[in-house]
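User: Can you model how cytidine-5'-triphosphate sits in this protein?
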Amino acid sequence: MSNLAGRRVILGVTGGIAAYKAVEVCRRLVDAGAHVVPVLTESACKMVGPATFSALASERAHTSVFNDHSSAIPHTTLGQSADVVVVCPATARVISDLRTGRSGDLLTATVLATRAPVVVCPAMHTEMWEQPSVQDNINMLESRGVVVVAPESGRLAGGDMGHGRLASPDRILEAIEAAVGAPSGDFAGKSVLVTAGGTREPIDAVRFVGNRSSGKQGHALAAEAAARGADVTLITTKPETAPSGVRVVAVDTAQEMAAACTAHAPEADVVIMAAAVADFRPATTTDRKLKKSDGVPELVMVPTTDILAGLGAAKPTGQILVGFAAETEDLVANAAQKLAAKNLDMIVANDVSKPGVGFEHETNEVSVLMAGGLRHDVAMSDKRDIARVVLNTVLEIETHRQDQEQE
Ligand code: CTP
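Assistant: Here's the modeled complex, given as structure tokens:
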């Protein structure tokens, strides 16, 4: 996975004809898992509409310091939160502004308000590109550490040929990846698989047997792992609320989730099974909608595969396998039984009968049980805080294993 996953990219677009190519760069950045924030200058908006970028990027396009929808001081908010600021295409005008430190609009003010790396992708006619003034500005920017993705030769606007055409999206993406650098964090280099949401087992074309899982705890785990540098695959029944910066695999039924887990789990260093998988599904289903006139249907249920038990039985050496236990009684005893029976390294147990715990809530209260018998009880907290504890416990298990190997 690209090191852009989970990174915040401010994509500044200025008013050259190559602005239309920035749309492709935007899409490629999103595909790489980046959180892309488009910032368009006034003239960029005359070339390509902000609606195009809003639709493709991770949030709506920003176009002005004033009347911004996101913040009272948008340039500092954008600049301070960026992992990288990209100006693509960069016109001669914006290159001059960047050199002199002029903050004439939201984009130039954002570049001044950032400490993140800045990548500039010039695009203009050959005569303009070769002007000593422009070359001097470019050299000065490079000497200050700005990454300049040199333009290429080829067809220019108006049918002219020459040097000055915007670099290819491949080269631009490479330069951005290099500028952003390797992810840091205590999960950097680890591949984490998380499942989330409740499965839906079809009765007919429109009806299903489901459960109340919102996917929030699994998504919080995926977001936390990505923020700590992991390469995250999220298998979820709620893709519409998946966090950015993770590879999303959308599934619906227990069978689809099982197939996705079988495909992705062998490569994972850590597997966290937070999904509420149906234990039973209707034995038969149909592509048509059952009619009232067909009579009241009699649902015969058959068991689904226990995905986690299967992953436990086939666990590769070194992998850390984490399960969840949703209980309404004998929390710790039941969870400990599942921990052993499914060959897990850790289980996160929650009493879903308590108010504010488990399904649909923003909060959770859990007991984290480890295979060695250790236990952490976590008081009612935000699901992201629970995710933090679960991931810290993964590292604890890993450290314990390394200590044992050294003995
Ligand atoms: N699980 C699974 N496949 C299933 C059912 C559950 O992988 N068909 C996983 C869940 O994702 C969770 C763990 O098993 O990580 C425990 O799920 P839970 O519903 O608490 O327990 P069950 O094993 O289903 O047992 P019971 O419903 O009897 O409590």
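A couple of observations from the model: The first helix runs from residue 19 to 31. The radius of gyration is 26 Å.
User: Helpful, thanks.
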